[in-house]
Design a protein that fits this description.
alpha+beta, Jelly Rolls, 9-stranded antiparallel beta sheet, binds 2-acetamido-2-deoxy-beta-D-glucopyranose
Length: about 400
């Protein structure tokens, strides 16, 4: 069996680049400044104590001169998502005009459910009229599992947007914010069309301007490289150039995939709208080395990822108005005021996540020495994708590789 597996593994390392090119029709370099209320740095979504954190995995990456594979660690989908994420029902640390509801309320009010076609739906209330100043119900959930690195891949058909709406898909440390760091993977306000990736850390972590990424560093008059998060320091952000990375266009093209890689090479984010999702992601054998330049990257030379990021849970939320969507409302081009906007449920029909799956892969060192294939044996999905890769390969060198 060991012999079989080790020979099966080789093709994974030699799969050709498979990322699709972006169709020209969707290319739209970021205009300065972003149209509706951005780009702007948010002040971070401080973690107050949440309930239910339990599973703790430690995949702290270890430097190596060897090759490695990304091996599936956790799959979240319609079958387990709401068992593996817990609801945060405290007041919003970012001062949104929102009531984050608990699990039972979310299900009773249709703010969270699995749709008949198997999507994980989480949304803001779009059925109830509110009085002026009343808070609108919504959801914020965090993963039970805690991570110290990995490749996080989200496939979503829709991400929330709309005037007064401020959603995020992010990861954040358990420690007192910003000690364990925060990585905002999808974030924006109103009907922006350009996603913003942001990091919030303890002082001493900086963006490297010359690193390879396609987005624009946020900051005025000059790009802000300082990732420090505090009441007055907004972290460091990079706005995507693609018009389909957030908001109406992202939803209109059927959504897509976001990937965040966190390892000793730093932290990088890619986004692919639906028709551009790399085949290796669809096949369950992601290899970021084959993808195009990331949209955003925090290079390790000016920010040691092991020092500034630890013990992250994965979070999804949708808030309204508050520190970013509220403070930027007047200049957003949205009608009226944010508090008026909040009253009419019809304004929130697009404030919804429709998620297909979220997968977390861990970095697995592969050396040219046969030792043990333990671990690989337990992952059905890995085995089947290895088999798929084998079917596509024209040659095999038996017994060359092993996973340690
Ligand atoms: C968080 O929990 C710890 C231990 O349970 C407690 O000491 C601390 O006061 C809590 N912090 C907040 C902000 O509730
Ligand atoms: C968390 O731990 C429980 C019990 O060990 C396990 O059943 C569950 O699958 C774990 N969740 C994840 C996401 O690994
Ligand atoms: C959060 O939800 C739990 C479980 O339903 C409930 O006991 C608690 O009172 C809620 N807390 C707040 C602040 O609403
Ligand atoms: C929730 O949705 C279901 C199915 O769409 C519907 O029958 C039910 O009335 C809704 N409940 C609420 C509280 O809106
Ligand atoms: C991360 O978790 C480990 C194990 O619980 C703990 O020793 C460490 O202090 C934590 N670090 C941070 C920054 O949260
Ligand atoms: C950016 O990518 C180019 C081409 O792959 C490489 O030569 C260069 O070293 C990279 N720059 C940084 C800062 O990583
Ligand atoms: C980050 O930037 C600050 C201010 O520009 C500078 O003092 C510090 O040395 C930089 N740190 C690193 C790790 O580059
Ligand atoms: C919701 O999205 C649809 C489709 O893009 C759009 O026509 C409509 O104006 C949006 N509604 C709101 C309130 O944003």
């Amino acid at each position: 069996m060991l012999q079989d597996l080790t020979s099966l593994l080789l093709p994974l390392l030699v799969l050709p680049a498979q990322a699709s090119a972006y169709p020209d029709s969707l290319l739209a370099p970021l205009a300065e400044p972003e149209t509706r209320g951005g780009p702007r740095l948010s002040v971070g979504k401080r973690q107050t104590n949440s309930s239910g954190s339990s599973n703790s995995t430690n995949v702290t990456p270890t430097p190596t001169e060897s090759d490695f594979l990304w091996i599936i660690q956790d799959t979240y989908d319609a079958t387990n998502f709401f068992q593996e994420f817990h609801f945060f029902n405290f007041s919003d640390p970012t001062h949104g005009t929102v009531t984050y509801v608990d699990h039972d309320t979310a299900f009773a009010h249709n703010l969270s459910y699995i749709s008949s076609d198997g999507k994980i739906v989480m949304k803001g209330d779009d059925t109830n009229w509110l009085a002026q100043g009343e808070y609108r119900e919504s959801v914020r959930v965090s993963s039970n599992t805690i991570y110290n690195g990995g490749l996080f891949i989200l496939d979503t058909d829709r991400a929330p947007w709309g005037c007064g709406v401020w959603p995020a898909f992010w990861t954040v440390g358990e420690a007192n914010w910003p000690e364990g760091g925060e990585i905002d993977i999808i974030e924006g306000v109103h009907d922006n069309e350009h996603n913003q990736v942001t990091w919030h850390t303890n002082p001493g972590c900086n963006l490297t301007k010359s690193a390879n990424f396609t987005g624009s560093i946020v900051g005025s008059p000059s790009p802000n490289l300082d990732c420090t998060g505090s009441a007055t320091k907004p972290g460091c952000g990079i706005t995507e150039w693609s018009q389909a990375s957030y908001g109406p266009t992202f939803d209109a093209v059927g959504g897509g995939v976001f990937a965040m890689k966190w390892d000793e090479d730093g932290i990088a984010v890619w986004s692919f709208y639906r028709v551009a999702v790399p085949q290796d992601i669809q096949d369950g054998t992601p290899n970021p080395a084959n993808w195009p330049t990331p949209v955003a990257a925090l290079a390790p030379n000016n920010c040691n990822p092991a020092k500034y990021f630890a013990n992250h849970s994965i979070v999804f939320d949708i808030t309204f108005c508050g520190d970013w969507a509220g403070n930027s409302y007047a200049t957003s081009g949205c009608p009226g005021t944010c508090s008026d906007r909040l009253m009419d449920p019809g304004n929130f029909v697009n404030a919804s996540w429709n998620i297909n799956w979220l997968k977390v892969y861990r970095r697995q060192t592969v050396k040219g020495v046969v030792s043990s294939a333990a671990g690989l044996h337990t992952h059905t999905e890995t085995r089947s994708s290895v088999l798929l890769a084998l079917a596509a390969a024209s040659f095999i060198i038996p017994g060359w590789l092993a996973v340690i």
